[in-house]
Amino acid sequence: MAVRSTLPSHSAEKVREVLRGLPMATGYRLTVKALRYRTRPHLQAFTFWDRPEMVIQVPEPFRPFAEMVDLGALGRPLAQFRTRRDVVRFLYLHEFCHYWLYLLHGWGTSAEVQCDRYAFANYRRRGLVLPPRIRARGERLGVEQLRLSARGGAGA
């Protein structure tokens, strides 16, 4: 995956370091740029399907902020973004979930709640992060997957 950054604080190499351990969107270009906001920092990212590119915008000037994340029936917690690293990882994981759904099911622009859940669960995780496990309608989790999810493993 090609990485490009116009963010003064993060070169392309530093962005690659921030994304280490996360699943890669093969064939896509990731562009990280500054987001100039008027009143307060917020989250903003796009995935373009006609030209394979993800654009992540990091609030500048950066200051720690909280953003409400819609997790559906799980509620709407405030996700804390203390560093630019948190913002880049959260937005990348959210957009990667759309990319993954587009590859597997052909519906990449939908499932906002599912992509928020995936990003919220993994953006601070250290080590390897697996691609999202999306169940088909009516599909039930197997016994091994239930064991993994009970331990906070990758099957959740």
Tell me about this structure.
The chain is α/β, with parallel strands linked by helices and 156 residues long. The chain has one domain. It is 31% helix and 21% strand. It contains four helices and six strands. The strands form two sheets. The protein has a four-stranded mixed beta sheet with strand order 1-2-4-3. Helix 2 crosses helix 3. The chain is globular and about 45 Å long.
Unreliable runs, pLDDT <50, ≥5 residues? 145-151
* Number of spatially distinct domains: 1
**What is the radius of gyration?**
16 Å
Structural class of the helix and strand makeup?
alpha/beta
The major beta sheet can be summarized as:
4 strands, mixed
Average residue-wise pLDDT: 86
SSE diagram, text form:
Layout: E1 2-5, H1 12-18, E2 29-36, E3 44-48, E4 53-60, E5 65-68, E6 78-81, H2 84-105, H3 112-122, H4 143-150
Helix pairs in contact: 2-3
Could you give a short description of this structure?
The protein has helices spanning 12-18, 84-105, 112-122, 143-150; strands at residues 2-5, 29-36, 44-48, 53-60, 65-68, 78-81. It has 156 residues and is of the alpha/beta class. It has one domain.
